[in-house]
Write a structure and sequence with these properties.
Four Helix Bundle (Hemerythrin (Met), subunit A), 2 domains, mainly alpha, 10 helices
């Protein structure tokens, strides 16, 4: 019963079951000493144990405590040897379960595969944005958006399990990576209606398309976002310096362009922050 999906969950479960069993042992000794080995004592045990177990968050050890209680009940005696035997059985049982659970196969291969998959999907989505900005039409069905949602959910769940399987050596790089991609993906979803509303005949649309194409070709785990952030800010300043809109349509297009550029900047900044945090952790580890 102590064998769980992750090593950390197994240790938490084992600890809770040990505490519950010791609590049950203490209550059982007191009740049987006062009331004798009667069914009423067992009923009273349940009435006392359950509220306490819930209060301390160890209710999952109820079955273990009942096993200990029934051992005492069937023995019809309480002495040091019996109590020592119960504790020994508990420790051996939990210990064996933990030893079995200590070996968890590495998830690196699966996580690396999902990382590659996510990057390919991101690259494809960005290329579709480029195509629409250049041509004003596309036959893209958006299936990569749906696929990316599923892959990211699975990857984050798997990466979280991988973190919980690493005792004493915290390595949550994959988890941080997929959470970062999840945030970026939310921005990609927000960009799509903006992209579809832009007029492909506007010069700036083609410039943004070229910029997104370069980002699409650079989707990988490394931190190159800072280079694109600098390029993006130059583009923003150049668009600001351009001739002011003359019509309502031109004004709306200009506003959409700036909104899209802000979303792209946020997309890049999320990646840049992850790289910066990892660099800081590396510096702390060296010091």
């Amino acid at each position: 019963m102590c064998i769980q999906v992750t090593v950390k969950q197994s240790f938490r479960t084992a600890w809770n079951r040990i505490l519950a069993s010791l609590l049950g042992l203490g209550i059982g000794v007191c009740l049987f000493s006062l009331m004798g080995y009667t069914p009423i004592a067992i009923l009273l045990f349940i009435l006392l144990f359950l509220p306490l177990a819930v209060r301390f968050g160890i209710q999952e050890g109820f079955v273990n405590s009942m096993v200990v209680l029934m051992h005492l009940y069937s023995s019809k005696r309480i002495d040091g040897m019996l109590l020592l035997n119960e504790v020994a059985l508990l420790v051996i049982g939990v210990g064996v379960a933990l030893l079995v659970n200590l070996y968890m196969p590495s998830l690196d291969k699966e996580l690396k595969g999902m990382q590659v998959k996510v990057e390919k999907l991101f690259s494809k989505i960005l290329r579709e944005f480029c195509y629409y900005l250049r041509h004003g039409e596309s036959d893209w069905d958006g299936k990569e958006l749906i696929e990316t949602t599923g892959v990211l959910e699975t990857a984050i769940r798997l990466a979280s399990r991988d973190v919980d399987n690493r005792l004493g050596r915290r390595n949550d790089s994959y988890y941080e990576y997929f959470v970062m991609r999840q945030k970026q993906f939310e921005l990609l979803e927000r960009m799509m209606p903006i992209v579809s509303s832009l007029d492909h005949q506007v010069t700036e649309s083609h410039r943004i398309a070229d910029f997104l194409a370069r980002i699409s070709d650079s989707v990988h785990p490394g931190n190159t976002a800072y280079r694109f952030i600098d390029q993006l800010r130059v583009m923003q300043e150049e668009i600001k310096a351009a001739e002011l809109p003359r019509t309502r349509e031109e004004f709306e297009t200009r506003a959409s362009l700036f909104y899209l550029l802000r979303e792209i900047e946020s997309y890049l900044f999320i990646k840049h922050e992850l790289g910066k945090n990892r660099d800081e952790k590396a510096q702390v580890a060296k010091s």
